[in-house]
Design brief:
Elements lengths: L13 E7 L4 H5 L17 E3 L9 E3 L15 H9 L5 H4 L10 H8 L4 H4 L9 H9 L1 E3 L2 E2 L6 H10 L10 H6 L6 H7 L4 E5 L20 E3 H11 L5 E4 L20 H16 L7 E7 L41 E4 L7 E3 L11 E2 L1 H10 L8 H5 L40 H14 L9 H5 L3 H24 L31 H8 L5
Helix pairs in contact: 2-4, 7-12, 14-16
Family: Belongs to the bacterial phospholipase C family.
Pfam families: Phosphoesterase
Subcellular location: Secreted
Length: 524
């Protein structure tokens, strides 16, 4: 699992990716402009009207009073359309090719819940997010990084490692059963002889990708609390590392993904923990650590989202009625690049290519990883188009020796504890539904909606934990039986509605025992 040496001239041998949840650039980092004027942040003069159709509407100005956010602002594809273009989505408005004025955030928030405009039109003071304050000062911030698609969490997370969402713009429970089939950067690295590892807190959302359910990749999943720090200390981190945080908020183990209503201070603690483990590793001088957010979560950002010159990754069209063609990006999100090869206080603006309209977005990770490890092929037309950021770690001829060993302790921002009996967010529901595809419950009549309708956060944690353990146990049984390592693994219930197992093309005939394990029958 140890990182293999790249034959390229780049000093980076290990790329570490941590994707937090649902916050815009201005909301999290906009006020960092007060510390570094080069950052395209906020001054307090930015505003939104409560009603875009009323020229005399009250305007809400952007402030610095963010702390604990509850409830969650709207961030569906239709919410984002209104936030960006200032009008609710209709077929007629979509046909007008409106300019992205970024004036509909307050209006959409008030439609979601009266008084929410103040929530979305505020950001954090630098001292409220001291871990980011330090990282932005010590390393690089990109102030032109956009979500890959103007939609919610799941499509954007899929883009991070595959440069496409395979046509997804919302929840698709049928697709969850088989997993998303697109090729990922994990496979590209594996095919070229490089290693990868996923350090998870239950459950790993990367299992939304079908190919990561193959037996050959199961050993690439590592429990974060058990293995991450030790692998850092032993210098055993692989070439491509994905950190998966806690997506559920419990009293005993608070959520640390920054998704409202989770406490951002817990996310700060998590980034601090990851950074300090990497900083202490003997691999530090070969590491690039990327912290970014999957999408903006409904929070205001003043930079217009790119709406022209964006290529569809694969020609797929999103679900009706929106029929999105993946030809514009989402709202700007925070992105911080960390490495001893990066100069202090670096600000990365728009890329210089490879195309005139290229932008930094989630596919930029796959595109840059392709360069670092000299991989032969792009994943889609989107990562072929996306800007790359290798220039930030090619300025120096030697790594820095003055990088901070530790980061500041963040202040607590939430009064009280986690709300364990809360209903699930959309993404949490999708994680539970994915867990049901891992333990076989997808074949029962409770799937998909009855499974999650009355589930609380604490219930969901127990369910996902058990489902993932069942999946791992069945994987081990399959490996012990000698099953083909290229097989995609999932449990199936003994039901006539159970889908056929997915098999790789041109697979050799199997024995009867192997065929049984191909289905991994679980009587749940």
């Amino acid at each position: 699992m140890v990182a293999e040496s790249s034959s390229s001239a780049y000093p980076i041998k290990t790329v570490v990716v941590l994707v937090q949840e649902n916050r815009s650039f201005d909301h999290m980092l906009g006020w960092m402009k007060s510390l570094n004027p080069e950052i395209d942040g906020v001054t307090g003069s930015e505003s939104n009207p409560i009603s875009t159709s009323d020229p005399n509407s009250k305007r809400v100005f952007f402030g610095d009073r963010s702390a604990y956010v509850d409830p969650d602002p709207g961030h569906s594809i239709q919410d984002i359309y209104e936030q960006v273009f200032g009008q609710p989505w209709t077929e007629d408005s979509a046909a007008k090719n409106l300019a992205p004025a970024m004036q509909g955030f307050a209006q959409n928030a008030e439609r979601t819940q009266p008084g929410m405009a103040e929530t979305v039109m505020n950001g954090f003071k630098p001292d409220s997010v001291p871990v980011y304050r330090e990282l932005v000062s010590e390393f690089a911030v990109c102030d032109r990084w956009f979500a890959s698609v103007p939609a919610a969490t799941q499509p954007n997370r899929l883009f991070v490692h595959s440069a496409t969402s395979h046509g997804l713009t919302g929840n698709d429970t049928k697709q969850l059963i088989q997993g998303f089939p697109q090729k990922t950067i994990f496979e590209s690295l594996d095919e070229a002889g490089f290693s990868f590892g996923i350090y998870y807190n239950y459950p790993p959302s990367t299992l939304f990708y079908r190919n990561l359910r193959k037996l050959k990749h199961i050993d690439n999943f590592h429990n974060f609390d058990v293995h991450f720090k030790r692998h850092c200390e032993e210098g055993k981190l692989p070439n491509y590392v994905v950190i998966e945080q806690r997506y559920f908020d419990l009293l005993s183990v608070p959520g640390n993904d920054d998704h409202p209503s989770h406490d951002v201070s817990e996310g700060q603690k998590f980034v601090k923990k990851v950074y300090e483990a990497l900083r202490a590793s003997p691999q530090w001088n070969e590491i690039l650590f990327i912290v970014l957010y999957d999408e903006h979560g409904g929070f205001y950002d003043h930079v217009p989202t790119p709406v022209t010159g964006v290529p569809s990754p694969d020609g797929l069209v999103g679900q009706p009625p929106y029929n999105f063609r993946f030809d514009r990006l989402g709202v700007r999100v925070p992105a911080i690049l960390i490495s001893p090869w990066i100069e202090r206080g670096t600000v990365l603006h728009e890329p210089s290519g490879p195309f005139p309209t290229s932008q930094f977005e989630h596919s930029s990770i796959a595109a840059t990883v392709k360069k670092i490890f000299n991989l032969p092929h792009f994943l889609t037309k989107r990562d072929e188009w996306a800007g790359t950021f290798e220039a930030v770690f090619l300025i120096r001829t030697t790594p820095r020796t003055d990088c901070p060993v530790s980061l500041p302790e963040p202040p607590r921002l939430r009064e009280g504890g986690a709300k364990e009996e809360s209903k699930l967010s959309e993404f949490q529901s999708e994680l539970v539904q994915m867990a049901a595809t891992l333990n076989g419950d997808h074949a029962k009549d409770v799937y998909p909606h009855k499974l999650v309708d009355n589930l609380t956060v604490s219930d969901a944690v127990k369910y996902c934990d058990g489902a993932f353990k069942t999946f791992l146990d069945e994987c081990q049984r399959a490996k012990d039986s000698g099953m083909d390592a290229s097989h995609v693994v999932f449990c199936v219930a003994n039901s006539p509605t159970t889908p056929l197992p997915i098999r790789p093309s041109q697979q050799a005939p199997k024995s009867f025992a192997q065929k049984i394990f191909s289905c991994l029958i679980c009587d749940h």
